[in-house]
Specification:
about 525 residues, alpha/beta, Rossmann fold, 2 domains, six-stranded parallel β-sheet, 15 helices
Length: about 525
């Protein structure tokens, strides 16, 4: 039977994923086989496993920290918000359907068998499981059908560490209030408190630590300092998305769409000295970047409508045409670049609906109910512009999209074509024989379904160096591959948490809880 420890938080973004990843790495370093688990994740950043199943990005990151391949059992339920009131529900890596929040809440218990079976499979394969909750266990309006916080702790028979974020203020009140709102049997599962994101001298904090322990009769097992560690972010609360200022060097602007997804696609760009990566959600902030990136989105048509209404579409079109600023679209961003988007099956809206694209590529997208989910690799073709040095390079990544994008036939003298793009060429020949993406003949507009394409540093370095040469500056890239870089960050994280957490107490909690479970 695997040892278990569950990380819950007083609020979203308190550091649950961070601490779970750290414990996965520490337990691995200590010789245990360990796996992460989160029964239900709500996030637009997702990952495709080797067998083509979709899970939350955070669990893939934690699996990497544990030194194992991500599997669907680590996140059996993934919710990808499509609007303020509903989400695409993914069960065991496959689309179950789109449900409104209330409908999902009513049906949540239907998914308990899938959750239990996934956890039990992991439990039978590993020495230890590090579970992660979601939001806060004190969301008392959701308690009845809870399958992700205390409800999951009960299913797994797991002790809990409760994490509070001191950087946002009120950490003692949030810890005390969270514990106080729990039922007695739920409070009994909390075996330790952790304060995260602390700045300053911990001695100043000690009176508060003693007082919270006296009031709750739960020990504080660690105070984790604020430190810059580069891990894949899970959702729209990421600190990355608030970077808006133009800095010196190469200016790369990512359009911050309302339903932005898989923005981890662009993390690799931050590894080049002299590259300033920022996120833009209004025309006043776009300025005159050297490169514009249009990211993936969970709702392409809605976000294209927003792009149009915000004025950003017209501004991007002008920058491409008049200032020759290159534009790269990934997945949903790629779909926006074409002539038209059609939705015959009602995947994103009303069946049969369609809308005009940005008209920057001679292509059109037709949405389909079946989702493409696959890891893949391919070879870059001979391409114009900043991609000229990339011909023959191998790139790896993964696809997550509903629909296909096709070349639009342009008839000679057709005055309805409002852009000046001319011909387009396929960008990547995939290993299975398919072609992915298109590049415009002038090299200014590039689109691809390949998430993670910038993790291929030879490709990324080549296009950034072309842009830097044009601007008259030089760049310095990290010498490490993305895999090596991530490994160094996981080790840095483990070192930080090992220094800050009473790991003897954590191991004791994991060992002793089995003998206590009959009393819960």
């Amino acid at each position: 039977m695997a040892k278990k420890i569950m990380i819950q938080g007083t609020m979203s973004n308190s550091g649950k994923s961070f601490l779970a990843a750290a414990l996965c790495r520490i337990l691995k370093q200590d010789g245990l086989s360990v796996a992460p688990f989160k029964s239900q994740n709500m996030a637009l950043n997702s990952y495709i496993t080797k067998d083509g199943l979709e899970i939350g990005r955070a669990q893939a990151m934690q699996a990497e920290a544990a030194g194992i391949a991500p599997t669907v059992d680590m996140n059996p339920i993934l919710l990808k918000p499509t609007s303020q009131m509903g989400s695409q529900v993914i069960v065991n890596g496959r689309v179950f359907g789109n449900l409104r929040a209330m409908d999902y809440y009513r049906r949540k218990t239907e998914f308990i068998p899938a959750v239990r079976e996934a956890f039990e499979r992991l439990e039978s394969q590993y020495d230890a499981i590090v579970l992660e909750g979601a939001g806060s266990p004190a969301e008392i309006n959701l308690r009845d059908n809870d399958i992700v916080n205390m409800g999951m702790a009960k299913i797994a028979n797991a002790p809990v560490l409760l994490v509070g974020d001191i950087d946002r203020g009120g950490v003692f009140a949030s810890l005390y209030g969270t514990v106080s709102l729990l039922e007695p049997e739920e409070r009994a599962r909390i075996k330790g408190l952790v304060i995260n994101k602390f700045r300053g001298d911990v001695k100043i904090l000690e009176p508060g630590l003693r007082m919270i322990e006296e009031k709750l009769h739960i020990p504080v097992v660690g105070v984790i300092p604020m430190e810059q560690i580069d891990l894949d972010d899970e959702d729209s609360l990421s600190d990355r998305l608030v970077r808006t200022e133009v800095q010196e060097g190469l200016d790369v602007a990512v359009i911050h769409l309302p339903h932005i997804s898989n923005f981890t696609d662009f993390n690799a760009l931050e590894h080049y000295e002299g590259v300033s990566l920022r996120y833009v959600d209004r025309t006043a902030h776009l300025g005159h970047p050297d490169l514009i990136l249009l990211p993936g989105t969970k709702n392409t048509m809605a976000d294209l409508k927003w792009l149009r209404e915000s004025g950003l579409e017209a501004l991007i079109q002008r920058l491409v045409k008049e200032e020759q600023v290159p534009l790269i679209g990934i997945c949903g961003g790629y779909q926006m670049l074409g002539e038209r988007l059609s939705d015959p099956e009602g995947v994103e809206g009303e069946p049969g609906s369609s809308m005009r694209g940005m008209e920057l590529l001679a292509a059109e997208t037709i949405f389909a109910a079946e989702k493409t989910r696959t890891q893949t690799e391919g070879t870059l073709q001979e391409l114009p512009g900043i991609y000229a040095a990339c011909a023959g390079q191998t790139v790896k990544g993964y696809e997550i999209h509903m629909g296909e994008t096709f070349r639009t036939e342009i008839e000679a003298g057709n005055s309805d074509i409002s852009h000046e793009k001319g011909e387009i060429a396929p960008a990547v020949r995939l290993a299975d024989g398919r072609m992915d993406g298109f590049v415009r003949a002038d090299g200014l507009v590039f689109g691809s379904y390949l998430h993670g394409i910038f993790d291929n540093l030879e490709f990324t370095g080549a296009i950034l160096n072309q842009l830097a040469e044009k601007k008259g500056i030089s760049l310095t890239a990290t010498a490490k591959s993305m895999e090596e870089y991530k490994e160094s960050q996981y080790d840095k994280l483990a070192d930080l948490v090992r220094r800050s957490l009473d790991m003897e107490a954590v191991y004791r909690i994991m060992e002793e809880y089995e003998s206590e479970r009959t009393r819960l």
